[in-house]
Amino acid sequence: MINLQKLKNGFEYLDISNKSAHAKIALQGAHIFHYAPHNSDPLLWLSQASDFELGKAIRGGVPICWPWFGMSENPELPQHGFARTSMWQLSASSEIDAHTTELTLTLKHSKSSLKLWPYRFELSLHVRVSDTLTMELKTTNLDEKPFKITQALHSYFQISDISHVHIEGLGKSSYFDALTQEQYQQNGDIEFYQEVDRIYQGIKHEIRLVDIKRQIVIKNEGSSSAVVWNPWIEKCARMSAMNNDAYRTMVCIESANALEDAKAIAPLQSHTLKAYIEVTNL
Ligand code: TA6
């Protein structure tokens, strides 16, 4: 079942339920802010302090960072681009079977997008809600000139506690540390005991977020970079729409095209970034 819901302030989202899972997707940003297969607690973290406000990104779920990840070269432009605060259209939906629902949301260039980024485009997010969650973010260049994008499906995952989790699958990758602006080599699993904000590169394997009772597996296609982020104590206290202790129950593992994994797209060509997320109980 797919229902369009509206909050008192006009904020609209799609409520999707089938025999395998429940999900919620805001029309603003095509922002998935809830996903729970029926055999598991929610996979996505959502800030208790998040405002569902028009023009402001939800803190949690899967914000779409596009057409740039992080800061643009022009510091006056919004961090992580404009897709996450733009209004998308539901362009297709289908209940494939009792366990599977598919939807496509679309964003096209507009007068206001052209002021921020001077290219004509179509961006679509194809979502498959079942006992796994699949997201396919397709960028099509509708302009006469080529353009280059960086992007991320900035997934916030719900965890039991930051001291109980580790990340497997990035053990042999190098990463750019956004905190020191230096390049390092990862040795072994990632554990958290301080702020982490890293772009891993040259990724060839699936990534596993291992918690006490479950493991979340992330498989990416059309991407060889991933961002791992936890703000830790001080940055968390400074962050908007985040309670002071929120860093304990979330970690971001973002399916990305960042740094040298940026994608140049020629006129009428497309690029698709795909993330496939599943949970297994341990
Ligand atoms: O992906 C990590 C990151 O770029 C961090 O540096 C961090 O501040 C974060 O994303 C959240 O950004 P936002 O613009 O949503 O506050």
Could you characterize the architecture of this molecule?
By secondary structure, the chain is mainly beta. The protein has two helices and 22 strands. The strands form four sheets. Strands 5, 11, 12, 14, 15, 16, 19 and 20 form an eight-stranded antiparallel sheet that branches. An eight-stranded antiparallel sheet has the order 6-7-8-9-22-18-17-13, with no helix packed on it. A four-stranded antiparallel sheet has the order 1-2-3-4, with no helix packed on it. The longest helix has 7 residues, at 232-238. The chain is globular, with a radius of gyration of 18 Å. The structure holds 6-O-phosphono-beta-D-tagatofuranose. The site of 6-O-phosphono-beta-D-tagatofuranose has 11 residues, from strand 19 and strand 20.
Helix/strand layout:
Layout: E1 2-6, E2 12-17, E3 21-26, E4 31-37, E5 64-65, E6 89-97, E7 100-108, H1 111-116, E8 121-129, E9 133-141, E10 147-149, E11 151-153, E12 156-158, E13 166-168, E14 174-177, E15 182-185, E16 196-201, E17 207-210, E18 214-221, E19 225-230, H2 232-238, E20 250-257, E21 263-265, E22 270-281
Antiparallel strand pairs: 1-2, 2-3, 3-4, 5-11, 6-7, 7-8, 8-9, 9-22, 10-21, 11-20, 12-20, 13-17, 14-15, 14-16, 16-19, 17-18, 18-22, 19-20
6-O-phosphono-beta-D-tagatofuranose binds next to strand 19 and strand 20.
